[in-house]
Amino acid sequence: RVQKWAVSFGKEIASLSTRYSGAKLLQKKYKDVEGAVKIEEVNGEELVKKFAEEMEEMLGRKMKSVKSLAEAAEDADLYHEYNETLEFDYYNSMLINTVDEDGNPVPLGGEFQLEENEHFSKLAVNTQQSNIQVPTNVYNRPDIVNGVYMSEALNDIFIDNFQKDPTLTWQYFGSSTGFFRLYPIQWIPDENGVVTFDCRNRNYIQAATSPKDVIIVVDVSGSMKGLRLTIAKHTINTILDTLGENDFVNIIAYSDYVRYVEPCFKGTLVQADLDNREHFKLLVEELHVKGEGKVKNAMMESFKILNEVLGQGSLCNQAIMLITDGAMEDFQDVFEKFNWPERRVRVFTYLIGREMTFAENVKWIACNNKYYTHISTLADVQENVMEYLHVLSRPMVINHDHDIIWTEAYMDSVQLFNTQAQSLLLMTSVAMPVFSKKKETLSHGILLGVVGTDVALKELMRLAPR
Question: Architecture of domain 210-376 in CATH?
Fold first, then answer.
């Protein structure tokens, strides 16, 4: 009886699979066209090899374009003489095609024919020119004007690259001073007319510095209450925004005792990917002040972690970011024990607040480690945090290591202003650092900025065999 049931069940399964798999229909269709088609065996290994070669060729073209931009930018800087009183009208992305009350183009605006372009996600662009975006918190200083004037030389290279490789999308030069030259002309500010985007985050940092291990040490003693804690939290978030997937990080808070903002990460470093950075930001928001600030133990803990993860983290730069309003303790012995004489770990000190209490010990760190900045308002944070990038990029610049980097995939930020969700585009960027080649500054290691271009992942997928 069991055997009969099994045979019957087997026939039923076979019948169901034949009916629902479409096998019968497929056989019938094949018979209809049997005389006109032939079946060929496909070599999967050959398909993958061909796909890899085509992808390599395509990515090679992108890297060649970026290299030509880097060379042009370095040559332009080499022959440019800095002029403190230089006046130069460039095209400001926020003012393009903007008119005054009398209907005349506003200064730095310019009048341009913008046409919707399928290749640039159906945005209105002008492919004959690039324009400049300056964040609201970066002012039109002489170094900005000189940098913009110098980088005008990139216009011809942008256009030439696009003509040679029509699959190129946005090309750019992000300056170390904060301005952003973007080709082709197009920019949409946020709804308040404020440009919050700073080109020196994300792609810029990955190209400008080697991977790094960072421990952020923040003072949460009673003296840090009110605005000081707000500035400290903003400083931490800004530092986190400068980190990428190649970096490793942890955050330690201290008062009477030392504690990790995330206890699960005690004694180690975690990859600074988007999830971990956002997780840290939520935890930082919950920080409260209490007790007396004893920084010595926090510094010892930080040095111990960095010593223990040698060979495990980024395998490159190591840094401690100390955020405090002052230190009552003398901790020279900590530095002598853990960081001298090699000074392998760089210590960056951010002194918070207008009135500085017990600042002498913090200044001692600065004098012996050379990296110190004073942040008295929220507006000071971005520019002061960015300074550490110049320090960490110096070895690369002095050695002229033109490493090309590819970023992790991200959503195209230009498209975030578009309300159509399906227009969001996954992108990767290829970027390269630009150095000063002037003889008088060669030994100082001056980073001019980063050049790059975006590559839509759908362009890569088009190469994939069906």
Answer: 3-Layer(aba) Sandwich (3.40)
Please state, in angstroms and rounded to a whole number, the distance separating the CA atoms of residues 270 and 261.
13
- For the stretch 262-299, pLDDT in tens is 999 998 999 998 899 999 999 999 999 888 878 888 88
What is the value of pTM for the model shown?
A: 0.71
Q: In a 3-state reduction of DSSP, which class is residue 117?
A: strand
Model confidence pLDDT, tens digit, residues 302-337? 888 888 876 565 567 888 888 888 766 666 667 676
Give the closest residue to 447 by CA, choosing from 205, 150, 266, 171: 205
| CB contact at 8 A, 208 and 389 | yes
Which residue ranges make up each domain of the chain?
A: 48-202+399-463, 210-376
The CA distance from 260 to 144, in Å, is 40
- For 191, 405, 443, the CA distances from 414, given in Å and listed in that order, are 14, 21, 38
Alpha-carbon radius of gyration of the chain? 28
Measured CA distances, 192 to 132, 136, 147, 347 (Å):
19, 11, 27, 38
